[in-house]
Amino acid sequence: MITIKNETIAQVPSLHVVKESERLQPEVPTIFFFHGFTSAKEHNLHVAYLLAEKGFRVILPDALYHGERSEAESKVERDLAFWEIILTSIHELGFMKKELEESGTIKGDRIGVIGTSMGAITMFGALTQYPWIKTAVSFMGTAHYEAFAHGLIKTAENRGLMIEQKMKEEVLRKIKPFDLSTQLDKLEGRPLFIWHGKDDQVVPYTLSEKLYDELLANYEDTPDKLQLLAEEKIGHKVSRRAVLRSVDWFNQHLQTKVSS
Questions:
Q1: H-helix or E-strand spanning residue 228
Q2: What's the confidence (pLDDT) of residue 131?
Q3: Can you tell me the distance from the alpha carbon of 165 to that of 224, in angstroms, rounded to the nearest whole number?
Q4: Which of 67, 131, 245, 250 could bond to 62 as cystine, CB 3.0-4.6 Å?
Q5: Longest pairwise C-alpha distance within the chain
Q6: Which one GO biological process term can you cite for this protein (predicted)?
Q7: Whole-number pLDDT of residue 74
């Protein structure tokens, strides 16, 4: 039986999904799942269920200003907080892992991260900070922080929103240390699965293709650890094929125990 429990982990409202028979087994491999912009932790339960069926513990946190952490901010205010939300989630991931370890809930080095859209962008940033992430999955995200930030700014200004130059510079300064595209060596050959619909009008597919091409040389000796799945005529919505492939990916790269 799969159990779903609403827990607060390092002050972050989260869902804890795992087989009931494995809940108290700390060496069960753990996956952190970050949701997308304007979404919430509950919206990815169908994927978490499939992962739990395969023997994974899945932790789904609510991002800042989302789900149980929603505030009465306007759409414009939340749009402007996009990068604040991402950077907060990256920092909170470290605190969550630490608390789960200290409580005896998790143990060992089989830890993965998956994200959807904003959650995938969060995942890419986390890869620059946490070498303990053993494998990762991106659903329609991007590792090119600066390029994507410029695109968001341009879109906002085209809609009539005026953004001060000082604010633009401050955002770019803050996100620079987390821009994986400028420090690909930090991946260190860790398994990475990238999925993207080619008709995505929110996060450009070309950014995923660009990242994949940039990484190819780093994975020449281990091509099975890097994969890009692009789907024709798919927009900003995760397909069932992507979900099933992500489950297979974690089953392949996270189930096997890593010797210490």
A1: strand 226-231
A2: 98
A3: 43
A4: 67
A5: 55
A6: proteolysis
A7: 55
pLDDT for residue 75: 62
Give the 3-state secondary structure of residue 196: strand
Are 121 and 88 a contacting pair, CB within 8 Å?
no
Per-residue tokens: 128: 């620059």
User: DSSP letter string over 103-124?
Assistant: TTS--SS-EEEEEETHHHHHHH
CB 76 within 8 Å of CB 22:
no
Dist CA 113 CA 24 (whole Å): 21
Query: Looking up tokens 């890097």, which residue turns up?
Result: 226
* Rounded CA separation 105/28 (Å): 9
Supply the pTM of this predicted model: 0.95
Closest CA to 111 of 98, 121, 120, 102: 98
Collect the ranges in the chain with pLDDT lower than 50: 258-260
Residue 110: C-alpha distances to residues 26, 131, 146, 209, 236 (Å): 11, 12, 30, 27, 30
Start-to-end CA span in the chain (Å): 31
Instruction: Say which CATH topology domain 2-253 has.
Output: Rossmann fold (3.40.50)
Torsions phi, psi for 39 (to 5 deg) = -95, -160
8-state DSSP, 243: H
CA separation for the pair 55, 28 (Å, rounded): 7
H helices of the chain, in order, are 45-53, 75-80, 82-102, 118-127, 145-158, 165-175, 205-215, 240-253
- Tokens (6 digits) for 169: 């510079």
